[in-house]
Amino acid sequence: MQAKQQDPRPLRDTPATLTPGHAPPLAGWRLMVRLFVPLSLGYFLSYFFRTINAVIVPQLTDDLGLTAASIGLLTSVYFLAFAGMQIPIGLLVDRFGPRKVQSALLLVASAGAFGFAFGRTLPELIVARGLIGAGVAGSLMVSFTAFVLWLAPARVPATVGLLMAFGGMGAFVAGAPTARFIAAGGAWRDLFFWIAIGAVGISAIVFLVLPEKARNHSESLRVLLSGLGRVFTDAVFWRVAPLTVAVLGSGFAIQGLWAGPWLMDVAHLDSASVGTHLSVMAVALVFGAVACGPILAAAQRFGFSVLQAVGVLSLAFIAAVAGLVLQLTGLSMALLAAIGFLLNPISMSYVALTARFDSSMAARVTTAINALVLVGSFILQWVIGAIIGLWAPLAPGVYPTSAYQAGLGFVLGCLVVSWVWFVASLARANRPVSTS
After folding, report:
1. ∠376-382-387 over CA atoms, to 5°?
2. Using one digit for the tens of pLDDT, what is the confidence trace for 192-206?
3. Structural domain includes residue 341
4. 50, 61, 120, 190 from 115: Cα distances, Å
5. How crowded is residue 369: how many other Cβ atoms within 10 Å of its Cβ?
6. 20 pLDDT exceeds 70?
7. Residue 10: inside a domain, yes or no?
8. Long-range pairs for 234-238 at CB < 8 Å and ≥24 separation?
9. Where is mean pLDDT largest: 42-56, 137-151, 292-306?
């Protein structure tokens, strides 16, 4: 008797085929400008906000008397709000189109930045940070949807790669340039005030420049939610998701916050050197985004699937985090550069998961995994701070090296466990299945 199979697609994945929406594929450089400029500015802002706290931690600590646990909570709220908005944004974009949704969201981010600039207590800053996270939560998924709607399928992957590279420049600006601004006597409150003004300007650019969504027949909310349920009950999704969440969540937690304190308290670097290290990490992130396509092509040329390539790259990522745990401070720049470079290529697991479903479900698949990644980032960033906070500070905001070893050691343990689960699941899924 032949066994019933719920999903004929194997775990040996192939790249997802991107199909355009019903909007006519307008050609020419003018369309690229109208799409790329406003969307890339929003994604730049998203990465800037994600990374900025790693640079201003000393000022926040001095001005507000925050502990390591408080800093971890404050910074990680960004990811919690970001994650909570993923599914609603997917539904809103389908209903109202990328232009209206993104311009409105950036106004929310601007309100959060104003709130952060004027906040005086930890709860006020937490609410403001949450608004920032919610406001920039659609920067990648809205861009992805707009590219699929307006560009020919062959142009979408390269354009997404360029967008991610431009976003990495936001992390770069949040590194050395911001550190120089702070070192020169600049106030973090002034910085957030002017960023808030800039967010209003970017919102206006998005509303005025981005093409309007072409009207088409959308699926009902019931059908959309049914498809989302299929994603969350897919067995392969849960074989891949833990490693993706552990790698990207820990990478965002390190880049967005804990790399800075580790460099100061463990490697004993000054603020200018910390800014330089973070900028190098951001530049590596940009190169990693650009390298996604070539890495994927090379893996397939040598007979590796996308997920097999992700497994190998994840092992390299784990080795880099182990270097931080072992406190190899002489290799600090190389370790952080490796972590930054590997984040975007490892996110190719999104492509592998999307390939398992119909192309009409691409947004739901990516928002589902993205929501988990961001919740993981929130949890890991907060837990690292809570573990570090178990040690008595040597001075205000300064913790012993053993505290960082314990906090990052917890992250390393999560990475190893999820990698073992991924490899075991991959091997099990690719065994021949009896049909009798």
Report:
1. 120
2. 999 999 999 999 999
3. yes
4. 16, 18, 9, 12
5. 23
6. no
7. no
8. 234/7, 234/356, 234/357, 236/7, 236/11, 236/353, 236/356, 236/429, 237/353, 237/356, 237/368, 237/369
9. 42-56
Residue 229, in any domain of the structure: yes
Sign of CA dihedral 400, 62, 251, 385: positive
At what angle are helices 401-429 and 235-253 packed, to 10 degrees?
160
Tell me phi and psi for residue 395, to 5 degrees.
-160, 170
Of 382, 368, 367, 369, nearest in space to 139 by CA: 367
Structural domain of 64: 29-429
Q: How confident is the model at residue 430 (pLDDT cuts 50, 70, 90)?
A: low
Q: Is residue 7 part of a domain?
A: no
The most confident of 23-37, 110-124, 160-174, by mean pLDDT? 110-124
Inter-CA distances, 415 with 38, 337, 344, 406, Å? 36, 18, 17, 14
| Per-residue b or e along 309-325, where b marks 16 or more CB atoms closer than 10 Å to that residue's CB | bbbebbeebbebbbbbb
Q: What is the domain count for the chain?
A: 1
Gap between the Cα atoms of 422 and 154, Å rounded: 30
Rg (CA), the chain: 21
**Can you tell me which residue has the tokens 């951001």?**
282
Q: Above pLDDT 90, what percent of the chain?
A: 37
Please report, as a single letter, which amino acid is at residue 323: G
DSSP 155-217: GHHHHHHHHHHHHHHHHHHTTHHHHHHHHTT--HHHHHHHHHHHHHHHHHHHHHHSPPPPP--
CATH of the domain at 221: 1.20.1250.20
Task: Give, in order, the Cα–Cα distances in Å from 349 to each of 16, 255, 287, 338, 345.
Answer: 11, 20, 18, 18, 8
Fill in the amino acid letter for 130.
G
Q: Confirm if 206 and 99 have CB atoms less than 8 A apart.
A: yes
Cβ atoms of 96 and 210 closer than 8 Å: no
User: DSSP letter string over 209-223?
Assistant: HSPPPPP--PPPHHH
Q: Which pLDDT score is estimated for 160?
A: 76
Q: What DSSP letter does each residue of 14-58 carry, written as one string? A: -PPPP---SS----SHHHHHHHHHHHHHHHHHHHHHHHTHHHHHH
One-letter amino acid identity for 157? P
Contact by Cβ (8 Å): 147, 159: yes
**Cα separation, 175 vs 273, whole angstroms:** 10
Burial class of residue 330 (count of CB atoms within 10 Å of its CB; 0-12, 13-18, 19+): exposed
Distant-in-sequence, close-in-space partners of 111: CB < 8 Å, separation ≥ 6:
131, 135, 196
